Amino acid sequence: MSLPPPLPASLPAGGEDHRLHPWSWLFVLLMQLRHYFLPLVALLVFGQRGDRDPMWAQLIPLSAIAVLVLVSVLQYLSYRYRIGNDAITVRSGLLARNRREIPFARIHNVEVRQNPLHRMFGVAELRLESAGGVRPEAEMRVLKLDQALALERLVRQRGQAPQAVGAVATASITETDAEHVLLHLSSWDVVRMGLLSNRGWALAIAAFGVLFQTVPRPVMDDAIQRGGREVFGFASHLHPGVTGAFLLLAAALLLGWLALRALSVVLTLLRYHGFTLSEQDRRLTVSAGLLSRTRSSVARRRIQAWTLRESTLHRWFGLRQLRIDSAAGGPSRDEDRALRELAPLAPAVQCEQLVQYLLPQLQWPPAQWEAIPQRGRWRLCLGTLLLVPLLAAAAYWRWGPWGLIVLAWLPVALLVAHRQMARMGWFLDDHYVAVRGGWWKRWWRWAELDKVQGLRLQRSPLDKLLGTSSLQLDTAGAHGDVALTLRYLPRTQAQQVMEQLATALAGRKLRW
């Protein structure tokens, strides 16, 4: 019978229950205070209004904080974990006691996270995730940093440990294969990623949305009117003339655009600084972050589907994004909670090399894509074809013949639909199935046949009219925004491909 490798010296002895770091209760308290910060502030501010005694109004939020402190300490005292030969046992709960067994072989994703406060205390938060769970199987807040990293390596090794009879594993966990770096993004690469992204715009729009939702409408209108008057008065004082006014407007727009670009760079640096993709024991690990460091890993065999993406701007600079879907987590999970990006933005050649290295049995990219029949390409802009004439009629009624200029969008929409349909394609061989699409923003998505769990043939009323069908392939953990679907195939061809795939899947073992 195989024996598990010995525990590293930084981990507590196996077979015994252990508590988390002594400061664990403090980090749990800070997390709870973050969630209840706004209610506590509102209670402290609005509770002093009226005829209430100010001392009693302040005692209420202080009592709530004292309760949170007590709950945090009790959670720390009631949390235990034990490292066994094949699994980690976690006990938690004070009144309702819970015990959870987490086999090493079932752990799909391991995440080690450090925010600035964690780094100050030399600790880290560890999360263990299995397939399909909306919440992690275990959240350890917090462990010593060396213990968290050693436990991550232990999961990696014991999850891959051979089970052959008579094999005895005697090597220490620190003597495993060296970590092999597959991709590292320099500071300039991250800055370039920020310049090409729209994170600043997204944050600015979200901030304006929060302001309009929280600030009373009269206060917001008054602030906008006062700001507009001050800007107009300042511009009038300069006497710029028509040309000068246009130059001032262009300068203001340019400064705003530069500020948003700078904000995008800052946000990108905070998230992707020091981005490194590495492999050890056939497990991929991504570490990144400037202030908060995150280290997330997933076994290569757990990857269910792959996606390559590029926008027009990325294509001009020869860059692409490589993402994966794994069985860990779910679509409601935060993006940074599981390993999703193998290359957030890297040269296209480097992305291709990564795919060829991680999937050596596949021939990527495909030598030839199967094209989609061009008949019915207008279906891709059907909404535009119906909406634009209505808008043109309303504009003609309001502004006369000038309103018909709206109809100029119809040939543009038809051209875009034609380009999109021309780029759509699919590929199928004995190892994997792939689809591609998009024109302005292009994408490629594929999965190994061993990861496909189900097939579904779909026909909408429009498909019935055009004699087409779409074949959708389901994989575990398929959370991407691009579906693995062979769209708009002729009905006979779609049925033939489905029968071919069904026959191939029947003779294969599902690997996930």
Strand runs, count: 20
Quaternary: single chain
> Using only CA atoms, what is the Rg?
29 Å
* Poorly predicted segments: 161-176, 331-336
Q: Classify the beta-strand content into a percent band.
A: 15-25%
Q: Alpha-carbon distance between the termini? A: 25 Å
Structural class: alpha+beta
* Average pLDDT taken over every residue: 82
Number of helices: 15
Specify the biggest β-sheet: 7 strands, antiparallel
Helix percent band: 40-55%
Keywords:
512 residues, seven-stranded antiparallel beta sheet, alpha+beta
Summarize the structure.
The protein is α+β, with helices and mostly antiparallel strands and 512 residues long. The protein contains 15 helices and 20 strands.
Detailed description of the structure:
- The chain has a seven-stranded antiparallel beta sheet.
- 43% of the residues lie in helices and 24% in strands.
- By secondary structure, it is of the alpha+beta class.
- It is built from 15 helices and 20 strands.
